[in-house]
Amino acid sequence: MPIANGFLTPEQFKMEQFSELAVGYCPSCHMVQLTELIEPSTLFNESYPYFSSTSRRMVEHFKGFAQEVSQRFGADPFVLEVGSNDGILLQNFARPGCRHLGVEPSRSVAEAAIQRGLNTTVDFFNEETARRLRAQHGPADAVVGANVICHIPAIRSLLAGVEIMLKPHGLFVFEEPYLGDIIRLTAYDQIYDEHIFYFSAVALRHVFDEFGLEIVDASPQHVHGGSMRWTIGRKEQHQPTPAAERLIEREIDGGLTEAGTYQAFAQRVASSRTALVQLLEGLKQDGKRITGYGATSKSTTTLNYCGIGPDIIDFISDTTPAKQGRFSPGRHIPIKPYEAFKNHYPDYALLLAWNHGEEIIANEGSFLASGGRFISYVPTARVLEPSEHAVGPR
Ligand code: SAH
Ligand code: TMP
After folding, report:
1. pLDDT number for residue 389
2. Contact present, 109 and 86 (Cβ < 8 Å)
3. Who has the most CB within 10 Å: 306, 364, 377, 384?
4. Residue owning the nearest CA to atom 4 of ligand 1
5. Using CA positions, which residue lies closest to atom 26 of ligand 1?
């Protein structure tokens, strides 16, 4: 696989870096994770092209996240966010009576937050960074993060850092794609170089235990194709809700602690590829024009795994200026601005950003009215009915 977010120029085609993408399941601690890792500084740097605020729904979602965390604060709270990107979540804590700080290593996106007046340090969060920040700013009431904790390979350094930053009664609240949803939906495109871990409650309980931390709450989120918001605290400082215990029971009943579940998943993934390729090739043979919708990092896995290139997909439209004019990693499909889609609707749009499907389909009434149709591949490859608004879990 190429680098998932490595959108490139034609001059860079020859230098493109590829690596093995494989996932392992540990039967003793139950963690599911990548088996080969790429150096974080290769992925997260001044060229990182993923700007969180491109989705309006996610902007709203993070407002709710901040409100939920804020309810638990005492006086003069201090919130530290790991992976604050362009400030999509952090902006909600930047208000009178609340101190905030974002820790974000990718300068491209960190600058966007800084320009919005958000306190941001351009750094990787780890144990060492935490020691420095604790000395400079004091302890935090909450350490928060979204779609970042599963990106950090040195999970023990990360947790040591959280431990250093938190007040005795402080909370660590983060949300990430949930393993149970990935398996249930055969959402294999959640597997890419940035997503090192695919978290479950059983695996998290195990690793938190080492740091004297426990799961205080686990709450499912209907974003990014199914996420879980984890609330973590020091042991014996909080009254855990029954949610985590119930989730663990469901995970065990659902087979997340059995290797056979992952073998069956691998078979469904292979079938999903065959079905998608057959569907697209059939449409192409009928002379249909197909474009991609959303140059997601996930789509790098789908397009490369399925061998879908510019012979099938004319281009991928995306609203992110940093991706436009570039080419998709590995398959080198051109990335064009949204207007390229809007000004000349294709017959079919492959919904590569299926995790934002509801928002996108709600916005694309005129594409559907023109006779255009979306194609999804989660949970199965199909042309979506015009009435089918929901993609992914409900
Ligand atoms: N929180 C945002 C961004 C998610 S993308 C959202 O949910 O939309 C992941 C972000 O984590 C990127 O901006 C990346 O630069 C950042 N990141 C990766 N490793 C990190 C680390 N060790 N510490 C802090 N941020 C990190
Ligand atoms: P994500 O799935 O990692 O959040 O990436 C979503 C990508 O899709 C990002 O590059 C922005 C793009 N996008 C659009 O082009 N149009 C849209 O309406 C939405 C929601 C996202």
Report:
1. 56
2. yes
3. 377
4. 147
5. 83
pLDDT at 73: 84
> Between the CA of residue 106 and those of 80, 128, 140, 284, 288, what are the distances in Å?
17, 18, 23, 39, 39
- CB under 6 Å to ligand 2: residues? 50, 54-55, 294-297, 318-320, 323, 353, 355-356, 359-360
CA–centroid distance, 123 to ligand 1, in Å, is: 10
146: Cβ below 6 Å to ligand 1? yes
356 Cα–ligand 2 center, Å: 7
Q: Encode pLDDT of 241-272 as tens digits.
A: 999 999 999 999 999 999 999 999 999 999 99
Structure confidence at residue 387 (pLDDT): 77
Q: What is the mean pLDDT of residues 117-141?
A: 98
87 C-beta neighbours (distance < 10 Å), count: 28
Task: Please give the average per-residue pLDDT across 24-46, as a whole number.
Answer: 97
* For the chain, percent of residues with pLDDT exceeding 70: 98
Distance 281 CA to ligand 1 centre (A): 36
Distance (Å) from CA 47 to ligand 1 centroid: 13
